Amino acid sequence: MLRNAALLATGIGIGLAIGWFAFRAPPAVAAAPIREPSGPSSRADAPVRGSATVPAPGAVRPPPLVPSSPRPAPSAPPTAEDAELRAKLEHTQAQLERVRADRLADIGAPIAAPPDLDPRFQSDALFKNVTAALRAAGFDEAQVTSVDCSEYPCIVYGEGLSGPGDFDRLAKAPGFAYSDDRLTSGAWGAGGSPGAPQQSHFALTPWPRSDTNSAEDVGKRLRYRYQQMAQTFAPPSK
Fold first, then answer.
1. Pick from 205, 202, 200: which is nearest to 221 by CA?
2. Cβ atoms of 150 and 166 closer than 8 Å
3. CB atoms inside a 10 Å sphere around CB 106
4. Quick one: which H or E segment has residue 128?
5. Would you tell me how many other CB atoms lie within 10 Å of the CB of residue 80?
6. Furthest C-alpha separation in the chain
7. Closest CA to 117 of 128, 127, 125, 129
8. At a CB cut-off of 8 Å and minimum separation 6, what does 228 contact?
9. Rounded to the nearest 5 degrees, what angle is found at the Cα of 115, between the Cα atoms of 113 and 119?
10. Rounded CA gap, 9 and 100, in Å?
11. How far is 238 from 236, CA to CA, in rounded Å?
12. pLDDT of residue 94
């Protein structure tokens, strides 16, 4: 009987203990029902605000819109003032053409060289032959300074000859290589100021007698070229 009482007491204690723990256990929390999201912003494929939309693969992107240029306004018909300005322009152009024609008549046009020009009339031969002629004619102080072949015919420039008498003497020098050819010449002085005595300069142009160019045209162009060279020796204007 005592044993049964002990077992009963033990069972009551366990029951009380279980009831105590059961009593102390926190109440169960009911699970809230899961609501299905609604609205366009909750779709997985909806764009996020502030982000760029990426087109689906294979989608054709429309071309960008290009603003059209404004059409030009129709031009107004010419006025009387426009006609007057055009007339003045045409008059000025005509004057320029006359000036060019007069200039060409004064200075001549460049001369075409013969296709079979003898090598005697080229730069190196001219320098050598005229230098030899100066020595043969007794012009010990004269010298060739340059040969200009920028146009035909070439021009021999030098120092120490001062007039027609000197050129005649040079042309009669023994062995002068151009005694049977045409010869055009010119001379001018430079200097003459205190401390700088005047110095004579010359231009000499041998050219073939067989040349079919007009002697007048050749002479006109040579005079112009001589004047251009002489101006380089002119003292600067004050």
1. 205
2. no
3. 10
4. helix 123-136
5. 7
6. 180
7. 125
8. none
9. 80
10. 145
11. 6
12. 83
